[in-house]
Write a structure and sequence with these properties.
The chain is an alpha/beta fold and 289 residues long. The chain contains nine helices and eleven strands. The strands form three sheets. Strands 5-4-3-8-9-11-10 form a seven-stranded mixed beta sheet, sandwiched between helices. Strands 1-2 form a two-stranded antiparallel ribbon. It is globular. The two termini are 18 Å apart.
């Protein structure tokens, strides 16, 4: 049984989104897509993408809507060399004696799986090279954190990569999925809030970091409005609550909201026709405020 006292400790009531009606989905279906306010597209000169892995569909959709946007992507878990090595490994599997034996013994499932793995590796490497070879897109095989070392850069370093004459008010949008490091870098991001049009952030392991999450959210609310919230169903709920352990939250700069702008009421989350479950084999998490 969920007690009201325990539920209130992890309640989303204070962070209920202000649904403004211009929400669009950027990125592929299911996992990898995020909901943002359409108005941030023309406002943003730069897209900073923290956490890419093997999916840059969000960045590609953003680029389609604003072809002249400058995109800077950071991820220490992937590189051109890594993708090349994965392609070679998949090819070696095809050339192995085990693969040949499997084909001779009519192990169709094993043969098919290895061929699919090779096709995927080749396609991923090709798509990566094509997308990140564009003049207005840069990829850095480094993560972002609150310390600088051989694997990570700081938020300050990232913003100093943008020419000063291009770093204007409301000119930068951030997409962030960096596996708990969001709590390390958000305090520094707040120092640059003047330049942000908005953000979409995945908050991880909220069963552990809830007090830190609440503190960060309260700081963000000073200059940003929560305009969308979605529970990632790859993970379950915080024990003894109705709140997902992993939340995707969209923030819009308050200065981009008109004072008399109407707010649509009584939206159900997830929003039909807009939200999609990250894991398509499971039901999406309903949200309670």
């Amino acid at each position: 049984m969920i007690t009201s006292q325990k539920h209130s400790q992890n309640s989303l009531q204070a962070f209920k989104p202000r649904y403004l009606g211009d929400m669009i989905r950027l990125g592929r279906a299911f996992d990898g897509g995020y909901i943002v306010n359409e108005r941030i597209i023309p406002a943003s000169r730069y897209l900073l993408s923290f956490g890419v892995n093997d999916d840059w569909s969000f960045e590609a959709n953003f680029l389609n809507l604003k072809p002249d946007v400058q995109i800077l992507c950071f991820d220490h878990s992937v590189s051109r060399r890594d993708l090349q090595e994965k392609t070679i490994d998949a090819l070696n599997q095809i050339l192995s004696a085990r693969f040949i034996l499997g084909a001779m013994t009519l192990n169709f499932r094993g043969v098919r799986n290895k061929l699919q793995a090779l096709r995927r590796a080749v396609r991923l490497r090709s798509d990566f090279s094509e997308f990140f070879s564009r003049d207005n897109i840069q990829f850095f095989s480094k993560g972002v954190s609150n310390v600088e070392d051989s694997h990570f850069v700081t938020i300050s370093e990232v913003f100093h990569m943008i020419p000063p004459d291009q770093l204007l008010e409301n000119s930068v949008f951030i997409k962030m999925d960096i596996e708990q490091s969001e709590f390390r870098v958000l305090p520094e991001i707040l120092e640059f809030e003047k330049y942000l049009s908005g953000m979409v952030i995945e908050f991880h392991d909220l069963d552990i970091f809830w007090p830190i999450f609440v503190n960060v959210m309260n700081q963000l609310k000073a200059n940003f409005e929560v305009t969308h919230l979605h529970g990632n169903n790859h993970l379950g709920l915080i024990p003894h609550s109705k709140t997902p352990r992993l939340l995707e939250i969209t923030f819009l700069k308050r200065s981009l909201i008109c004072g008399d702008e109407l707010q649509r009421e009584a939206e159900v989350y997830p929003i039909p026709g807009l939200d999609q479950p990250n894991d398509s084999s499971k039901e999406d998490h309903p949200l309670y405020f």
